[in-house]
Write a structure and sequence with these properties.
- The protein is built from 6 helices and 18 strands.
- The strands form 4 sheets. It has a 7-stranded mixed sheet with strand order 3-9-8-5-16-17-18. The protein has a 7-stranded mixed sheet with strand order 4-10-11-12-13-15-14, with no helix packed on it.
Length: about 325
């Protein structure tokens, strides 16, 4: 599918639509216009696969902290494909590469994601501090015909029709770009991206659609977290169509609801844990009435919480 530029949508960022006929990767400065609809037979079980911190190296035998990252991603891909129905979308929330995002790292990542692409599953990729934009695009831009935005931040936005055939529901997912400097731990969204997010959320067409936002870095005041966390939460907090903020970076699995009702969900890592009490794996996200159900799908690390389910009731 060729890129279709929409410069009139916002003067600050150029937004484009990218994909492929089968198993398309939606990434870069991406606006997925319109609504993606699951096949009628699969609409009953609409769900999302949420993945973070794959840390793939060019050497697939590479290990870190006792874990083989490639084998862990293979296990996640196999588990996603083993589900009775296919997901409406697969989202990988940053730190795609192990250290500094070399071109061969992304080539191996694409190889490991091959079974998902061959199954025709849409994949949305975010960027983290261990990624490198130019190397990332060098591998991915040709099959996607992707073009770079002036602001050098790469966003993804998709609106999905989910729920059941009797009670269909729309769900929007926005993936932000918090990569600031390659292999430098803290992240940054920057004023342009935050202003785009604010304007985009305030658009009348988006005001009532439940929205989940993904960003790689944790929104905290810790030294190695998202530098402009407070600014992001000031944008999301009063806009009640935003129901949850999902992040990775810390290699921790947790859910927490703020006083304003916004859910903060820390996705587990695929690659390796920083502490022995944490699982490795991915999260299955299913709509449940006025909210979603999250199921931890652990493939390694601490397995005691495997298949743990958490209900998030929308504010």
């Amino acid at each position: 599918m060729p890129v279709e530029l929409h410069p009139t949508l916002n003067r600050r960022l150029f937004l484009s639509q990218a994909g492929a006929a089968v198993g398309g990767l939606a990434l870069g400065t991406v606006l997925q216009a319109g609504v993606e609809t699951a096949a009628p037979a699969e609409l009953e079980a609409g769900w999302l696969a949420l993945i973070s911190d794959t840390h793939i190296d060019a050497d697939l035998a590479k290990t870190n902290l006792g874990q083989n990252m490639a084998e862990n991603l293979r296990a996640v891909v196999q588990d996603v494909l083993s589900q009775a129905q296919r997901p409406a979308g697969t989202f990988i929330n940053g730190d795609l590469a192990l250290k500094d995002g070399q071109t061969p790292d992304y080539e191996q990542l694409l190889n490991l994601l091959g079974p998902l692409r061959q199954a025709g599953l849409p994949i949305h990729l975010g960027l983290g501090n261990h990624d490198h934009r130019d190397h990332f695009l060098a591998v991915l831009k040709d099959p996607l015909q992707l073009q770079r935005a002036e602001a050098s931040k790469y966003l993804s936005e998709v609106t999905l029709q989910m729920g059941t055939a009797q009670a269909p529901a729309l769900l929007r997912v926005i993936v932000l770009d918090s990569l600031n400097k390659v292999n430098i731990t803290p992240g940054l969204l920057g004023p342009e991206q935050l202003l785009w997010l604010q304007d985009h959320l305030d658009a009348p067409a988006h005001a009532t659609v439940p929205t989940m936002v993904l960003v790689h870095h944790d929104p905290s005041n810790q030294t190695n977290a998202l530098i402009d966390s407070d600014a992001l939460l000031r944008v999301l907090g009063p806009r009640r169509q935003v129901k949850a903020l999902f992040f990775g970076h810390t290699h921790v699995w947790s859910t927490k609801q703020q006083n304003d009702g916004l859910w903060l969900v820390n996705l587990p890592a695929v690659a390796y844990p920083f502490s022995n009490d944490q699982p490795l794996g991915w999260v299955q996200c299913r709509p449940r009435g006025n909210g979603v159900e999250l199921e931890l799908r652990a493939i390694g690390g601490n397995l005691t919480q495997n298949r743990q389910r958490v209900e998030l009731a929308w504010r």
